[in-house]
Amino acid sequence: MELIVASELLAEDDLTRAQHLARYFGQLTVQSRQLPSGWQLTLSRPVTASAFLDPELAEGLDWWSKTFSTIGVEDIFAAVYRDSSLQIALEDSWTLYAWSSWLTRVSSDGQVPTCVTLLHLDEHDDLMAPRLVVADEKWQDAITGAAVDMQEPDSIAAAIRSGAISIGNFIAPLGHWLPELHIRHLRQSPGATNDAGPSSLHATWHEDTLLAPGCARPALELGDECLDIILPGQHTYRCATNTADWLADLPPGPILLHIDLDYFNNRYEGNPDWKLTTPDFNPPLSSVLVRIDEVFENLEAANIAQRIVDYTVAISPGFFPASMWAVAAERVLAHIYRLRGTTLRPVNTSAIPSSRS
Questions:
Q1: What are the backbone dihedrals phi and psi of residue 156, each rounded to the nearest 5 degrees, phi first?
Q2: What is the top-level taxon of the source organism (predicted)?
């Protein structure tokens, strides 16, 4: 896809401009060329395995192709499978599609659930602002200009395919749509904090700087204060490093369970210099499986299965090692089906819009 932005919005210096574009567009590949009318930006998806850092990526793609649907590197961004019990995708951006589908089902009478808890098992908070903007009091995809509505799942799928919604920024729309969202974040890498109680979380707006300068983008911001009392209509966030704290004192209401496999092993961290700079968080597959079992044992002991209304799993190429995809993902899925009280079902991807952008 090609876009034109005003000349003054990007630096003429190649390095400065490339860094700005990389920060703004995230997972998209961007080429820029100066024209009389401004900077021409050409957006595309990675098509080579090297973009995902993992030397064993082909092994993981082969497993996905045999288990769900045939894909290559160029299809990673669109790889998603849903059935009546869960959703699994390669990239975490699709998690918002699952939440949108759930909201559409439960809000058919116009009543949005008032209090929702998100059990977020992930090495990242994913609270960045998506490339969505508000125009005429409605949300739009800043890349395509198409309308985006949390209660129209097809519009969310289109924004995921365009790159407007991507890994790292898929939670903010949920926080803007729900009256009360409580994020309980479980992570285990060095440096993760374990607060005594939840912190405030605010639905706010960030000003767009490139595709729609001056327009507002939905965002979530953490407050500095630790809350002793949670008031009605208040979003909260709590980070924990063990499952006991993660599952303690959960608010009432429905629960969304979200699992990113990079929680269990974050070998690559999306970092080209991962061999030199990534923290030592690369446990073997045997340890990954033990930890998966422990997490689900604690979920079962917490007696909350009946409250979990949606299960989403992300594999995270470029973060979680492809050599572990098959065994680890199948262990997670087996636990979910058992917790849900269902059995493994034949592949059926008809629920996911199949068009590409």
A1: -70, -45
A2: Bacteria
Q: Which residue has the tokens 């004192």?
A: 249
- The token pair at 176 is 């803007």
pLDDT of residue 267: 94
Q: At what angle do helices 153-162 and 95-106 cross, to 10 degrees?
A: 170
pLDDT at 232: 76
What is each CA distance from 29 to 89, 95, 111, 166, 223, in whole angstroms? 21, 22, 40, 13, 33
Helix or strand or coil: residue 160? helix
Domain ranges within the chain, ordered by starting residue: 1-44, 50-340
Q: Say which amino acid occupies 205.
A: W
Say if strands 132-135 and 80-82 run parallel, antiparallel, or are unpaired. Answer: unpaired
Which DSSP letter does residue 142 get?
T
Q: What residues are paired with 226 via a beta bridge?
A: 199
Residue 85 or residue 324, greater confidence: 324
For the entire predicted model, the pTM comes to 0.92
Strand order in the sheet with 87-89: 80-82, 87-89, 308-314, 255-260, 116-121, 181-186, 235-240, 199-207, 216-226
- Record the tokens describing residue 216, joined without a space: 């507002």
Q: How confident is the model at residue 353 (pLDDT cuts 50, 70, 90)?
A: very low
Query: Does 348 have pLDDT greater than 50?
Result: no
Among candidate residues 299, 263, 306, 296, the one with its CA nearest the CA of residue 281: 263
**How many Å separate Cα 197 from the centre of its chain?**
24
Nearest to residue 142, comparing CAs of 154, 156, 152, 132?
Answer: 132
Coil/strand/helix, residue 114: coil
Residue 205, φ and ψ in degrees, nearest 5:
-135, 140
Element (H, E) at 321: none
- Which tokens belong to 257? 């369970």
Do 73 and 48 contact (CB within 8 A), yes or no?
Answer: yes
> In sequence order, what are the residues at sequence separation of 6 or more whose Cβ sits closer than 8 angstroms to the Cβ of residue 303?
none
